[in-house]
From TrEMBL:
It comes from Limnohabitans planktonicus II-D5. Pfam families: Host_attach. InterPro entries: Host_attachment_protein. This is Host attachment protein.
C-alpha cells in the first residue's frame, strides 16, 4: 500500500488539504475548510462591548481579542480533524504551510500524535494558489 503524504495550507479563514503518494504523482485536493469569521474585522465580530469582564472569576481579566478567538476556534477544528485522520491511519506524513500567526495557533492545538508526523512546516500562506502553482512551488522550493 502506498504511503499517503498530505500537504495542508491554511490561514485564519481557509484551509486546503492535498494528498500524493510520491513526488512523481500530482497533488489531489482532498478537502477544504472555510471559516469566514477569520477574515472579518473585529467590529463585525463584536457581540459585546470591549473592556473587562468578571465572567465568573474573582478579578477582572482582559477580553480575548475576537480575531484571536476565531483563529483559535478554526485551529481547533482543523486539529480535531487531523487527529481523527491520524488515528484512522489515513496519513503517514504531513507538510504544513500556514500564515503567521495562525501557524503557531494551529501547532498549539495539534495532538502529539499529529505533531509527530509533521515532517516540514513553514509560516507561509499558500492558500490562494491554484493547485498547479502550489504543486510547482512546493516541489521546486521545498522538495515536497
Amino acid at each position: 500500500m502506498a504511503q499517503k503524504h498530505w500537504i495542508l495550507t491554511a490561514n485564519a479563514s481557509v484551509a486546503r488539504l492535498f494528498e500524493r503518494t510520491s513526488l512523481l504523482e500530482p497533488l489531489i485536493e482532498l478537502a477544504d475548510w472555510m471559516h469566514p469569521e477569520g477574515s472579518m474585522l473585529a467590529s463585525e465580530l463584536e457581540r459585546a462591548p470591549l473592556g473587562h469582564s468578571i465572567g465568573g472569576r474573582t478579578g477582572l481579566a482582559p477580553r480575548m481579542d475576537l480575531k484571536h478567538r476565531e483563529r483559535l476556534e478554526f485551529a481547533h477544528q482543523l486539529a480535531l480533524w487531523l487527529r481523527e485522520a491520524v488515528l484512522a491511519h489515513s496519513v503517514e506524513d504531513i507538510v504544513l504551510f500556514a500564515s503567521d500567526p495562525f501557524m503557531g495557533e494551529l501547532l498549539a492545538q495539534l495532538d502529539p500524535g499529529v505533531q509527530k508526523i509533521i515532517s516540514l512546516k513553514h509560516s507561509l500562506d499558500l492558500t490562494s494558489l491554484p493547485v498547479h502553482e502550489l504543486e510547482r512551488k512546493v516541489r521546486v522550493e521545498f522538495g515536497v
